[in-house]
Amino acid sequence: MKSLSIFIFSALLFISCNTNESVDWQLGPFVKYEANPIITPQGDTWEAKDVFNPAAFADNDQIYMLYRAEDSTGVGVWNGTSRIGLGISDDGYHFERHPDPIYEPLDEFELPGGTEDPRIVKIDDTFWLTYTAYDGETARQALASSTDLLTWERHGLIFPQLGWTKAGAIVPTQINGRYWMYFGDTNIWAAWSEDLINWTPIEEPVMTPREGMFDSRLIEPGPTPVITDHGILLLYNSADDDLVYRTGQALFDINDPTNLLERSDDFFMEPDYELEVDGQIPNVVFIEGLAKLGDTWFLYFGMGDSGIGVATYQE
Q1: pLDDT tens, residue by residue, 256-291
Q2: Which of 30, 47, 114, 216 would give a disulfide with 311, using CB separation of 3.0 to 4.6 Å?
Q3: Structural domain tally of the chain?
């Protein structure tokens, strides 16, 4: 009996330790700001209809937000052409917005839908912007770079050989001589580059939806991945079979970014505010921006494709 008791105790200790280890790699818990939304449509031109799906990064004690804004001059059911705006904040909650869009649709593959869903990463002295170029029929990932966020060099489509592609999140550091990107809005794929301009996609997805779970219908990368002691942390968006959008976390091998090590069993954020439940697109929280000021992480997200909210986690 004594040996059996020792065996049971050891087994429980093993399970407990492994359970704790499986949680330790995740970031959070995040708590939604009670005064959400923090940014809403304004004026009667380029950001008059909806604002949502923001990218973000922290630099010199300020947070810079690049957000998607829609007017009412487009075509189709949502009737909006998208442009990218810029906001700057000292506290993570209150943003001074640039009066004009900093990035607009110009190329044929960007019109009439526009430039959508930005993600931003700073590598050395250059900002790299990935965004969805939408011509009204096909969404494709495109790339631009800047040193000041106002003047942009346009690099065109990231995967010209592919059709529909979305949601490129670039890992912020070189790994074994290569840069890496996660992308996709059904499964999640990976791609690599030696110069951040020319990208080679990996044929097989590195992460797929899970039947019967919160991410059963689709998955899509969220903000710029975070390098941690555990590996490459990717916060991601997902939808279930009822198209309710929630958020999860995944951990990839720092030495092999295609190797999925861990994945959250449950979501950490879901639509519950009125704007998230009954917005332009109902039942959506959609994360694309993550930045840290001091010991506080700010996670920015689209609320029902209608406004912008924030959730925080203090270390």
Answers
A1: 999 999 999 999 999 999 999 999 999 999 999 999
A2: 30
A3: 1
Q: Is the dihedral of CA 62, 56, 77, 275 positive or negative?
A: negative
The confidence score (pLDDT) of residue 73 equals 76
155 exposed, middle or buried (CB, 10 Å; 0-12, 13-18, 19+)?
Answer: middle
Distance CA 166, CA 176 (A): 25
Contact 233, 199 (CB under 8 A): no
CA 258 to chain centre: 18
Greatest Cα pair distance in the chain: 78
CA distance 71 to 114: 10
| pLDDT number for residue 77 | 59
pTM score, whole prediction: 0.90
| Three-point CA angle 190, 192, 195, nearest 5° | 150
Residue with tokens 């969220």: 222
Full DSSP string of the chain = -HHHHHHHHHHHHHHHHHHHHHHHTS----EE-TT--SB---SSSTTSSEEEEEEEEEETTEEEEEEEEE-S---SSS---EEEEEEEESSSS--EEPSS-SB---SGGGTTTEEEEEEEEEETTEEEEEEEEE-SS-EEEEEEEESSSSS-EEEEES-TTSSS----EE-SS-BTTBEEEEE-SSSBEEEEESSSSS-EE-SS-SB---TTSTTSSEEEE-SS-EE-SSSEEEEEEEE-TT--EEEEEEEE-SS-TT-EEEE-SS-SB---SHHHHSSSSSS-EEEEEEEEETTEEEEEEEETTTEEEEEEEE-
CATH of the domain at 244: 2.115.10.20
Residue 234, both tokens: 């990717």
Residue 28 structural domain = 2-314
Nearest Cα neighbor of 248 from 258, 260, 256 is 260
